[in-house]
Write a structure and sequence with these properties.
Blueprint (H helix, E strand, L loop, with lengths): L4 E3 L6 E8 L2 H12 L5 E7 L2 E9 L1 H13 L8 E4 L6 E3 L11 E3 L28 H8 L4 H13 L13 H13 L10 H12 L7 E6 L4 E6 L3 E7 L2 E6 L6 E8 L2 H11 L11 E3 L3 E7 L3 E10 L2 E10 L3 H14 L1 E2 L18 E2 L2 E2 L5 E7 L6 E4 L8 E4 L3 E9 L4 E6 L10 E3 L8 E6 L10 E9 L9 E5 L10 E4 L4 E5 L13 E6 H10 L5 E3 L7 H11 E7 L1
Parallel strand pairs: 25-32
Antiparallel strand pairs: 1-7, 2-4, 2-5, 3-4, 3-6, 8-9, 9-17, 10-11, 11-12, 12-16, 13-14, 14-15, 15-16, 18-19, 20-21, 20-33, 21-24, 22-23, 22-33, 23-24, 26-27, 26-29, 27-28, 28-31, 29-30, 30-31
Helix pairs in contact: 1-6, 4-6
Length: 571
């Protein structure tokens, strides 16, 4: 039997809640489905990013029977239940209405005499109807109830859909009306230029569909003192590691969110800005700005894009980082906008002692991996402008080459027969010391040393490894290399081999590759003849000496360290 609906007197009212969704876009999609079959469908915010779909309002005794009847007919989910008006917050469907203030609907059975109550098992038939849309006058009336933010959101959605190119000013002028009519025509509606409640919901549903599946909801982190909307279907809390709260990926999308929370000053803010640029999650290229009370740091790489914002207020630095896969720009920018709009400072700041038992490492900053080069080698200055000799393997296929990590350089010349490369810094440098090449023939079994970054820069300064000159040629009689008795490491390759007076005898070559392994302590150095020829061909006149001197170990270490640099290859 049909259920005509008439308004009853104001009284206690309840609702039949049939569904809850974790995002407004998914709730709008589902509510349109229900509205195509059922009358009196409403949508309300539940808070914390959840949205309810409910039928009503009803008197309590009617709601119970309607709940059981609609369940029996399979028109609503089996887990639907009775809810109170106090459970709900702002209404989002239909737009511009507030059914929480309405009296209960009067349920009338035309078959029973004198409007007697329905028997407990009597089915209540809810007619299948097409949703009745508004006339232009009704649409304009409901439109007048929209807030400025809601009107601007419609313009934004029309712009996204490609129908509107004007300013987002919440003013529905001729341009906005024309774009509304174009959207209506494209979507099979009458071209009135005034969107009805259903059409506004449809447009916003299209606009928000890109965010479906992200599980957007407000996350309130009391420890960090931050409240922000977050894609909870993709990231989940993992740990505190001051000044960061880590929310790491939990799905197929490699996303990450960091909350930033610490006490500090403008100097602390600037230090955080510098440190974050060394992190692996922040690609090196991209716009970035630092002000006295805020910074924005955007890293744009081939695999990921990171966006960091932080603000200093009342001695507290708070902000967030969103890391998102590259190539998903529309969803990233829409999500970023929601996070920026929802970011709220609440009482509290992250305790520096939080996460004190967390993983630590020399390559980690608060649990985040520092960006590292693909390959490190040693090198040494050969003129006063900062030109550097090093091995050719460290410059192969590099997107960026650095000297001592801070100075970018480019390849000026190379000799692939011995694997030697000459680098020129992009900016002129002022070396503490420059190589002086030994012209005298050194004696066999004389003491030598190689200066190099044995451990790839971990120690922050070059080390000196001592050995002896064994032969003035290679194992097969090669005259362009010397054989050394010296226990060098891979990071030492490219470093200067010096005699006891600090004069350069050659450049240490990388350890051989392949199936043949030489005994421990066997190393090779490129002869000065080859090195000086490469320099001369590049227009550099190398410094030379014929003096056979003996230098104190401390002085020798200082001289060798002054000319030796760390050369890094970055992807």
């Amino acid at each position: 039997m049909a259920v005509p609906a008439a308004r009853a007197q104001q009284g206690d009212t309840v609702w039949v809640q049939i569904e809850a969704q974790p995002s407004l876009s998914s709730a709008n999609d589902r509510i349109r489905d229900y509205s195509a079959q059922l009358d009196d469908v409403h949508g309300f915010s539940l808070g914390a990013g959840w949205y309810a779909i409910a039928l009503g309002p009803y008197a309590p005794e009617d709601a119970d029977r309607i709940l059981r009847s609609l369940r029996a007919q399979g028109l609503i989910p089996r887990d639907s239940y009775i809810a109170r008006s106090s459970d709900y917050q702002q209404q989002f469907w239909p737009i511009g209405t507030n059914a929480l203030d309405r009296p209960a609907l009067e349920i009338v059975d035309p078959v029973l005499s004198q409007n007697a109550p329905l028997a407990q098992d009597t089915p209540i038939e809810i007619p299948l109807i097409e949703p009745a849309d508004e006339t232009p006058a009704e649409a304009r009336a409901s439109e007048s109830l929209l807030s400025r933010e809601e009107r601007a959101a419609l313009q934004e959605a029309l712009r996204w859909a490609g129908f509107y190119a004007g300013p987002i000013d919440a003013a529905f002028g001729r341009g906005t009306r024309s774009s509304m009519a174009d959207w209506q025509a494209t979507n099979g509606h009458d071209e009135t230029g005034i969107l009805t409640t259903l059409q506004r919901a449809e447009l916003l549903g299209q606009y928000n569909a890109v965010l479906d599946g992200l599980g957007l909801q407000i996350v309130r982190d009391e420890a960090a003192g931050i409240e922000i909307e977050m894609p909870t279907a993709l990231v989940a809390f993992e740990r505190y590691e001051p000044p960061f709260v880590h929310y790491n990926a939990q799905g197929d999308i490699d996303a990450r969110v960091l909350l930033i929370s610490q006490t500090g000053t403008d100097a602390t803010l600037a230090g955080l800005y510098d440190i974050m640029q060394t992190l692996e999650i922040v690609p090196e290229t991209g716009p970035r700005t630092l002000e006295s009370d805020a910074f924005t740091l955007i890293g744009e790489g081939a695999l990921r894009i990171s966006h960091t914002q932080a603000w200093l207020k009342d001695g507290e630095i708070k902000g967030f980082t969103l890391v998102w896969p590259a190539g998903d720009e529309e969803r990233r920018t829409r999500l970023l906008g929601r996070m920026q709009e929802s970011f709220t400072r609440i009482d509290g700041v992250l305790d520096p002692a939080e996460g004190s038992d967390a993983m630590q490492g020399i390559d980690l900053v608060s649990g985040l991996e520092i960006r590292k080069p693909r390959l490190n080698r040693s090198g040494f200055y050969v003129d006063r402008t900062g030109a550097v000799l090093t091995t050719a393997d460290v410059v192969d296929g590099c997107r960026r080459i650095t000297i001592d990590e801070d100075h970018e350089a480019q390849v000026a010349s190379r000799d692939d027969s011995l694997g030697i490369a000459l680098l020129r810094p992009l900016d002129r440098l002022a070396p503490m010391a420059v190589a002086a090449f030994q012209q005298a023939i050194p004696r066999l079994r004389s003491d030598v040393a190689v200066a190099g970054y044995s451990y790839g820069g971990v120690l922050g300064a070059p080390t000196l490894t001592f050995g002896q000159l064994e032969e003035l040629q290679g194992l097969n009689g090669e005259d362009k290399i010397k054989r050394l008795s010296l226990n060098a490491l891979e990071g030492d390759a490219g470093g200067p081999v010096v005699d006891a007076g600090g004069a350069v005898l050659g450049m240490l070559m990388p350890q051989g590759s392949g199936d043949r392994r030489l005994p421990d302590g066997v190393s090779f150095a490129a002869n000065n003849t080859v090195l000086k020829q490469l320099l001369q061909d590049a227009g550099i006149t190398p410094s030379a000496t014929s003096e056979i001197a003996q230098m104190a170990p401390e002085a020798l270490t200082d001289r060798a360290a002054g000319m030796t640099v760390l050369v890094s290859c970055w992807d």
